[in-house]
Amino acid sequence: MIVYRALRILGRLALRWFYRDVEVVGIEQLPVRGPVLLASNHPNALVDALVIACTLRRPVTLTAKATLLENPITQALLRAVGVVPLRRVSDAVTRNGATGQSVATSIDPSRNDGAFAAVLDVLEGGGVVLLFPEGKSHSDPALAPLKTGLARIALMARAQRPIDSLPIIPIGLTFERKWEPRSRVVMSIGTPIVLERGTPNANEDATALTRDIDAALRSVTLNFPSQGDASEVLSLSALLAEMLDEFRPLHAPDPPLSETVRLAQRLGAIAERVPQADPWLARRIEQFRARLSAFDEVTRQYGISANDVQMSTDVGGGAWFVVREALIAAVAGPLALWGRVNHWLPLRLARSLALRRSRTPDDPATNTIVAALVLVLGFYAAQTALVTWSLGWMVGLAYAVSLPPSATWDFRYADRRRRASARVRTYLRFRREPPLQLRLLAELTWLRSEAAALNDAVDQIPCRAAQPPARVRTAYGET
Questions:
Q1: Which residues pair with 84 in a beta bridge?
Q2: Local structure of 26: helix, strand or coil
Q3: Alpha carbons 477 and 337: distance in angstroms, whole number
Q4: Beta strands in 154-277 (DSSP E)
Q5: How confident is the model at residue 453 (pLDDT cuts 50, 70, 90)?
Q6: pTM, rounded to two decimals
Q7: Distance, CA of 15 to CA of 26 (rounded, Å)
């Protein structure tokens, strides 16, 4: 447990450095005690487990593919934090294919009995277990077909262990740009599927329960037919989130990523109804899209954020902005500079090594975080030892304590400085060209009004025949 807590502290620090923000939606769905099975999508390799384990307050028992334990370093790390290895059929197929053996005769059906027993022990003890039912990390625009392993574990727990109630909680991870430093993540926690002892359930077999888990996961994830559709809808929803939001403070200049995800889900629902719309409504929607696209093109041309169109350009406000940012720079600038001086080299080396070793979009974040942890800790040890040897242990201790917060502030202050520079450029342009801001404000007002009207109009379109609802049980009561 000590090793787990230490690694979770390091993991939280690494996530804070790599991603600008990790938002959590629906945390009230997670019980504060009792057994829980977490079912998550798997878009970003080991980072997915890191985000969930470092964000939730309760300790999380992780599962991972057994091939990760073939590396001695990875094996020692994973075993230290209590990871349960699962042996996948696909790994056996790959290995046996290489040796020419018959897959049908070489795969042991009982290969995961020990792993399942370990998971059941954790659940019986009231613990939380995380599984990725897709069985693989991938960059596809939609969920992969789910494996039945999670459902089988849940049914075994109810049948073989004294567990009266077992919630299966869907978790949807959405990354803004999963490979890019200082991008954002949202973790959406959905309504649990609760298996209760002595209560009849429609999902009595693994296949039926897996279908229910699939439906629950789709409610908290974004799923598109193609990468092109995903890029188009996410770009549109991000623009709408900026456009519909009020003018935001500099320390939080972007609308929450969860709002972009919500709008993307809403756009998907609207797209299903548009073919049934009256011709006049279809023309209004097309006109709205054309004007929104033109608005986006103009703001991009001038390097203006859609949200910044609403900024005040009075002299007093501009003067206070300069004074405030100068004071912040005077106080926080030296700490940020201290962080940059002490971390620039190891972090640059980590990123360079990570990109060199990355082969898929799933690799850069994981490789960067792992390499950064190793290199930064190594640099910390060497620097602290040198300072202690030169100036004494008290100075060495103070030096070591100053390092992590200085790096954190360097990242955050760099984000603020970039955003402040963009706002200064926009302010000066609007001061030089007042008609440009007036024209953009008028267009923004129309787009907001028309978006609300179209949203209401689309809701009046009769739905197609609804699909049978997923058999999702009543949510676990405690928050």
A1: 63
A2: coil
A3: 48
A4: 165-175, 184-189, 193-196
A5: very high
A6: 0.87
A7: 20
**Cα 105 to chain center, whole Å?**
40
CB atoms within 10 A of CB 382: 11
**For 358-403, what is each residue's pLDDT tens digit?**
988 889 999 999 899 999 999 999 999 999 999 999 999 999 999 9
What does DSSP say about strands 165-175 and 193-196: parallel, antiparallel, or unpaired? antiparallel
* pLDDT-based confidence at residue 74 (cuts at 50, 70, 90): low
For residue 165, which amino acid is it? S
Of all helices (H) and strands (E), which one includes residue 268?
A: helix 257-273
Q: Does domain 2-218 have CATH number 3.30.420.40?
A: no
Question: How far is it, in rounded angstroms, from Cα 392 to Cα 397?
Answer: 9
Task: State the Cα–Cα distance between residues 128 and 96, nearest whole angstrom.
Answer: 34
Among 324, 352, 341, CA closest to 383: 341
138 in Cβ contact with 7 (< 8 Å): no
The residue type found at 169 is I
CATH 3.40.1130.10 segments of the chain: 2-218
Tokens of 372: 């950064």
Bridge-based pairing state of the strands 84-86 and 128-131:
unpaired
pLDDT tens readout for residues 149-198: 999 999 999 889 999 999 999 999 999 999 999 999 999 999 999 998 76
Mark residue 364 as left, alpha or beta (left: phi above 0; alpha: psi -120 to 50; beta: remaining).
alpha
Cα–Cα distances in Å, from 453 out to 120, 278, 299, 456?
52, 15, 24, 5
CA atoms within 13 A on the CB side of 102: 2
> DSSP strand E in 18-164: where?
21-25, 36-40, 60-65, 84-86, 128-131
Place of tokens 């964000």: 55
Q: Where are the alpha helices (DSSP H) in 100-205?
A: 103-106, 113-124, 149-160
| C-alpha span between 452 and 244 (Å, rounded) | 10
* C-beta neighbour count of 106 within 10 angstroms: 12
> 88, 92, 79, 39: which is closest to 215 by C-alpha?
39
Burial string for 81-103 (b: 16+ CB within 10 Å, else e) reads bbbbbbebeebbeeebeeeeeee
State how far the Cα of 331 lies from the Cα of 409, in Å rounded to an integer: 12
Collapsing DSSP to helix, strand or coil, 185 comes out as strand
* Residue 472 to residue 153: CA distance in whole angstroms: 18
